Amino acid sequence: MTRKKINQQVWLLNKLTERCARNPSYSLRSFAKTLDISPALLSLLMNGKRPLTRKTALKFSKKLALSQIECDELLSVIDNSKQTLKGSKVEKYLNIDEFHLIADWYHYAILCLADIIDQQADPGWISQRLGITKAEARLGLERLTRLNLIDIKNNKILRKQRVVSSPRDVPSSAIRKHHYQNLRQAEEALETLTVDQRYFGSSTFCFDEQDLEKVKDAFRKFQDEISCIANKGKNKRRIFTMAMQMFPIDKSPPEESKA
Q: Are residues 122 and 203 in the same domain?
């Protein structure tokens, strides 16, 4: 599989996220100091408003002590970053590198907060509303902004893309992480919420494995229909997550004899 190229915004945000994961107090200003540039210039680079030059890329490579492979990757990013995010069209589906940055469940929840009537683009308010730390809320807002998925104006979250989906049927640790988190939340909801606050359902049936793709398409169509209903709502005050599960619960049957 050919790896999809990433742009300078995603590359820089990736590096910043790695450092924030190791040190929660690490900030964009700290990153700028590491790169030996001003915070203002770093902000322009991360917003795609200033192109990354080869000279600057080589400087970053030295400051970050990149390996030769990592340096080559950074240089390849330059050719993919000529067009700025300003005025460009945001794709409906994120690539793996982009999704990796927002794999934690609360990023999609922050996106949904944009539709809440009394929402605030304030890490403290988001922290209380979603039950996450202020640091997670702050980084979540920053990542979503860097990926051009939201704007923040007058202390409000403005959603720039109605549908933000991960790549489909692609092996990824980030996607697995996202699903694991949803499963843990579902387990907690099953124990703590009353039946009028949740819905859990399952069906057990037998069908031809060759029809699996048709079943997946039916699930996706159903998800799209639910999304349409959600988008039409006018009095949005709560955030829900919906998960559907289907997997074999028996062993593979033996090959039939051709004799």
A: yes
